[in-house]
Specification:
By secondary structure, this protein is α+β, with helices and mostly antiparallel strands. Helices cover 51% and strands 16% of the residues. It is built from six helices and eight strands; from the N terminus they run ααααββββββαββα. The protein has a five-stranded antiparallel beta sheet with strand order 4-3-2-1-5. A three-stranded antiparallel beta sheet has the order 6-8-7.
Amino acid sequence: MNRPVPVIAAASPSPTPSSTPTAVTTSDVKNWVDTHGSLLLNNGLKIIGIIVVCVLLRKFIARTINKVVRHAAQVADSRAGRMLEGSGLVATERTRQRTQAIGSVLRSVSSTVIFSVGTLMIISVLEISITPILASVSAVGVAVGLGAKDVITDFLAGITMIFEDQYGVGDVIDTGLAKGTVIEVGLRVTKLRDADGQIWYVRNGSIARVGNLSQGWGRAVVDVPVDYGEDVGRVHEVLAVMADELYADEAWRPKLLDAQPPQVLGIENLDGGAVVIRVQARTAPQKNVEVTRELRHRIKLALDAAGIEVASVTAA
């Protein structure tokens, strides 16, 4: 006999809690303000105080840096001006660019340090753990450092060159990569114009050594080959008279640094059928080419007047 299968009624779903938000009452707001208000007010005042102190400190340090850098640049430039007087350097532009570059670097460094310390102090006031933040910043710093290694190297090299005043606007320098007159000195790139008028952009980080032809003094050297049959003593006398006349010329005297005429050093070489006699003079920076040309001109006139023939030098 088949037994009847009992029918089980489906359980009715239990009522869900209402999704309607509970209204915030005045007492709730009062309780929250009583609990957190004093803490928020105290922290807010501390944060505002930290920001104000950072801003004021940055302004004070920036003004101090501007005064110190400007004074140092003026002193260095006046000293260089006395050494390089008459050398044609663009002293005003050199001072302006060097002052701006040094001031910009110092202001950037001071601002970064001040606001970094201020940010850490604000985080500390808010009682936020700075360990994860420092770890993240370190990781980002390493990635940026590896990706921008060349750029960072250029900037550091540029800062060093500017602080040490290795060269400036108007100087003639030889970087190995290019040679010419400096027309702009930047933190990352130095701009040169060569003798053909071509402009070269040289990365500061790529300069392993630099020769400055505009600092201190230059040298004009002329080798005079004369015939073996000429009287060397007579040639020496003719050249010495020529050197005295050049030294006495008011137009050329400021370009000669020594307190004596150009030197006739004597026999420099015995080359084939010629006796080579060297004439040498110490000149103001960048004036050695002019003085060398003038020496050649006057030597030619003096030898012609004395009837002394210039010998042809055998190529090595």
